[in-house]
Amino acid sequence: MSWDILLIFFVLSVIVPLRGRARLQQLLAKPRVERAERLSLYASTIAFQWLAAAVAAWRAWAHGFTAAQVGLAMPGRFRLLLITVFGAALIVTLQWLNLRRMGRSTSPLRRPLQALAERILPQSTMELIPFLGLAVTAGLCEEFLYRGFAMAVLSRMGLPTSVVILSSSIIFGLAHLYQGRSGFVSTMLLGILFGISRTALGSLLPVIVWHMGVDVVAGIGGPRYLIHHEQVSDQE
């Protein structure tokens, strides 16, 4: 593996988790996060992800990876679109039901989740619009980075498909370590599901749309079920 590819993997598996954890600790240390801080968080994350995806795409092209190898292909378009739409409907429904379940939960585990939601999820229409831009960015950029670029590099190294999927999913989980252990595990499991789908279908399109759906529902349903309504209304 060349030094530039190693550097990208180092950023994805070490710098991104450390950066996310440090930023979250700063937010959690505050009794209240204002609108301007959330908007700044959304904007900086969008910029960082597009920059990371652009650099990875540049280096992938420089090393001779084809569009098909990084998942930028659409074999069997009609079938692919059907799977994309059906899968999106299913995963969006499950995400919404899971948020509703967590919102009704009295478990002590709900408390840190609520604290996280209060600080990073949109709490007004003005915040929701840029958050949806972040959801689209995450779907496009993260799926290219972890299911496109990372899986292509690991596959070229001759690793078994199962190892490729698991390794990329662990790195994906680490990027969401700021959500705690449960966030790491759930994200890693979602990464495994997305990795299997990307391998089986030969395209990133379904997982990009599914990822967007998960994040869009989090932005809409999270405040509804995880944040007290009076907190939301105060910032409208």
Instruction: Give me the strand/helix succession.
Output: HHHHHHHHH
Counting copies of identical and different chains, the oligomeric state is single chain
Question: How many structural domains?
Answer: 1
Outline the biggest β-sheet.
none
Mean of the pLDDT scores?
A: 91
Give the number of DSSP strands: 0
Low-confidence stretches: 229-236
Amino- and carboxy-terminal Cα gap: 50 Å
Structural class: mainly alpha
> Helix fraction?
over 70%
Strand content: under 5%
Number of helices: 9
General description of the model:
With 236 residues, the chain is mainly α. The protein has one domain. It is built from nine helices and no strands. The termini are far apart.
Topology:
Blueprint: H1 3-28, H2 35-62, H3 77-104, H4 110-120, H5 125-156, H6 161-175, H7 180-201, H8 205-226, H9 229-234
Helix pairs in contact: 1-6, 2-5, 3-8, 5-6, 5-7, 5-8, 6-7
Fill in the keyword field for this structure:
mainly alpha, 236 residues, 81% helix, disordered C terminus, 9 helices
Brief overview:
The chain has helices at 3-28, 35-62, 77-104, 110-120, 125-156, 161-175, 180-201, 205-226, 229-234. It has 236 residues and is mostly helical.
